[in-house]
Specification:
By secondary structure, this protein is mainly alpha-helical. The protein is built from two helices and two strands. The relative contact order is 0.06.
């Protein structure tokens, strides 16, 4: 056996409707028990802002992650190792 499973198992093998039904029961149970998290407007606003900044930088497009050049060490250009330039 090559170690790769092709069949879906457990929750993933269920239909979307069945998954939704089970998740809904869990959410209702958590609220009845008093352990469910309820977002305040400020928490929701902050989370939405954070997600938007990470996914698209607030500009409607994906933004590549920024890299601090000083922490890179050496740059590999055309197979030649040289110190990373910090004067860019």
């Amino acid at each position: 056996m090559d170690g790769v499973r092709k069949e879906r198992r457990g929750f993933a093998s269920m239909s979307t409707d069945k998954q939704r039904e089970i998740a809904s029961k869990g959410g209702r149970a958590a609220h009845e028990k008093g352990t469910a998290h309820e977002w305040t407007p400020d928490e929701a606003r902050a989370a939405g802002r954070k997600g938007g900044q990470i996914s698209r930088g607030g500009r409607g497009r994906l933004v590549p992650p920024t890299v601090d050049v000083a922490t890179l060490g050496t740059a590999h250009v055309s197979g030649v190792d040289r110190p990373a330039s910090t004067s860019d």
